[in-house]
Amino acid sequence: MSHIFSVSELTSAIKEVLEIQFPFVWVRGQVSNMARPGSGHIYFTLKDEQASIQVVWFKGSQGFSQKDGVSLAENLQDGQEVLCAGRIGVYPPRGTYQLIAELVQEKGLGDLFLAFEALKKKLAGLGYFDPEHKKNIPYHPEKIAVITAPHGAAIQDFLRIARDLGLGSEIRIYPSLVQGDQAPEEIVRAINLVNAHNWAEVLVLIRGGGSLEDLWAFNTEEVARAVFESNIPILTGIGHEIDTTIADLVADKRGATPSHTAQLLWPERKVLLQDLDEQEIRLHGGLKKFFAHKETILQQMHKALTWLSPEKQVQRIEERFEHMREMLEQAWEGFVRRQEDKLNLLEKGLKAGFGPDYWQIRFQVVSTYEMHLKTNIQKLLSVNEAKLDLTEERLSGLDPLKPLARGYSLVKIEKTGKILRHKEEVEPGDKLGIRLLEGSIRAEVLYEVGSRKDEG
After folding, report:
1. Nearest residue to 148 (alpha-carbon basis) of 183, 116, 121
2. Is residue 223 within 8 Å of 165, Cβ to Cβ?
């Protein structure tokens, strides 16, 4: 069974569909049945030869439609041909749809709109609006060129916002007409001049609000071409947020208003200061980790150098020698004790098993064994003492200062830092460093022993 709508449900569904499908439209027609109630809103019917639509023009939107400083709402009358821009809405109490006008322009401006759409279609076909042609607007630029009317409200708003953003930049104003027949030529000249100077990081093109006719200079093909061919990124801020010109579509980026362009160029100063604090904190943390890492490496290198030093090597050899000496003493003491124990056992056995005569004979044998034992012990002691003397002599030979004590000296070639071993390694004029047992002296080679000079 299909769903049965209530009147309110059906009206709400239709309203949702219409408002989604027609969020913003341009409609051209003739004004009729116009009414001006005390609220200030304007109600009228917009019609052509075949159809009509109800239009409501709220008071808050009427200020956007002006010509020569006069609001079109004051002079709007039945029979007038107009172009309306707005959104489609549904009025539930009557179940009717209507156009909620945001902008109303006279018929002549409707022709401008058709020209706008024709140029827009042409430039789109040439690729003027393609994203791949858009250049990036630099973050926090320091050199900005601004093309605008030098005494207009737009430049004042731009500079006022710029003073409160960023950390200071240089702004150069390139004056130009922004309205009228001569405006397109001056705008193109200013864009070319900025590119010729090749000074700015970004070019800002701004103008205050106005009617479609007032903004027409920015809807011309020559201005669009100059914007497209600019080597410097261009940021536009033309009119109000609802105004979109051809220059806006071609530009690398569009701001809603002149003030908004300044906000797109520079971040808030407090945000920059906060970023600076965060960078400082990260820098301190990074330096702390860096120095800690380097200190660890230095400690490891110091430990390795200490282990490889000659002093430590000699110390390890002495420790090993002392350990071997202790082991030898312990082994000798154990050997003597074992031999004494065996001798005591033999003596007890002999006393128990034999008489005095036997003992007398055996005593002589034992005396002989004792003499042999002492001889062997002496030999063993002599061998081990010789080993100890040899080890001590080897250790003494490892002492780098021992030869110096016997009158020798250590000669080093200063320019190479090498130890002098052969006379061919030096020549007259070389400086030598001579290390003695106590202190050192410097010397210079005058001639070689055995040379002709020496023979003379």
Report:
1. 183
2. no
Pairing of strands 253-254, 410-413: unpaired
From residue 141, how far is each of 19, 265, 408 by CA, in Å? Answer: 41, 7, 75
- The residue to which tokens 């150069």 are assigned: 172
- The closest of 61, 85, 83 to 71, measured between CA atoms, is 61
DSSP state of 106: E
Homologous superfamily (CATH) for 126-267: Succinyl-CoA synthetase domains (3.40.50.261)
| Reduced 3-state DSSP string for 247-268 | HHHHCCEECCCHHHHHHHHCCE
Which of the listed CATH numbers 3.40.50.460, 3.40.1190.20, 3.40.50.720, 2.40.50.140 matches domain 7-109? 2.40.50.140
Query: What pLDDT digit, counting tens, does each position of 289-348 carry?
Result: 988 888 888 888 877 777 667 777 778 788 888 888 889 889 888 888 898 888 888 878
**Distance between CA atoms of residues 148 and 235, nearest Å:** 12
Residue 290 sits at the vertex; the CA angle it makes with 285 and 292, to the nearest 5 degrees, is 95
